[in-house]
Amino acid sequence: MSTIKWSIDPVHSQIQFSARHMVISKIRGEFEQYESWLETNGEEIENGSAFFSAVTGSINTGNKMRDDHLRSESFFKSEEFPNLFFKSTSFEKKSKEDYVLKGEMTIRNVTKPIELAVEFGGIITDPYGLRRAGFSLSGKINRKDFGMVYNDLIETGGAVVSDEIKLDLHVEFTHQPA
User: CA–CA separation, 157 vs 152, rounded Å?
Assistant: First the structure.
């Protein structure tokens, strides 16, 4: 089998995250500028390799003041570190639809291993002749592991922003068959 390079379809993909705010609620956000690819042996997903990069300045939580704070020294430090990166180290099948994607995440020039649960939606041919593969991925990181140490506390002792950040990605990849 030959290697297939799949490209992300940004029109049909969302790269989202959430964090607890003041212990009692969750704030969601997303990256609006990113690129990603997946390489597989034929259309066999297991043992494929994946790469992802997002522009940290493209973060959008629906609030300009909060977004500017996330781009600042307290969090992404976007001027100095304009991109975050993920590169897979393994892609293992657990069942028909369930996989585990392991890799290395780099944020603010700090690289740490992460693990993502993957739900594989399948592969189809769309009306334009493109092959499409759909995935939902979830996982979590500790923002402090990547140097984002902002730590204001509320009067009850809880954090304004949780250390744990939940990742929630829904993506489609395409390739043109030969």
Answer: 9
Superfamily of domain 3-175 in CATH is Lipid/polyisoprenoid-binding, YceI-like (2.40.128.110)
Q: What are the residue ranges spanned by the domains of the chain?
A: 3-175
Is 172:22 a contact under the CB 8 Å cutoff?
Answer: no
Contact 154, 22 (CB under 8 A): yes
CA dist 67 → 1, 53, 94, 120, 123 (Å): 45, 19, 37, 31, 35
pLDDT in tens, 90-134: 999 999 899 999 999 999 999 999 999 999 999 999 999 999 999
Token pair, residue 91, equals 């892609």
pLDDT digits (tens, 9 = 90+) for 130-168: 999 999 999 999 989 998 886 654 455 544 577 788 999
Are 59 and 31 in contact by the 8 Å Cβ rule? The answer is yes
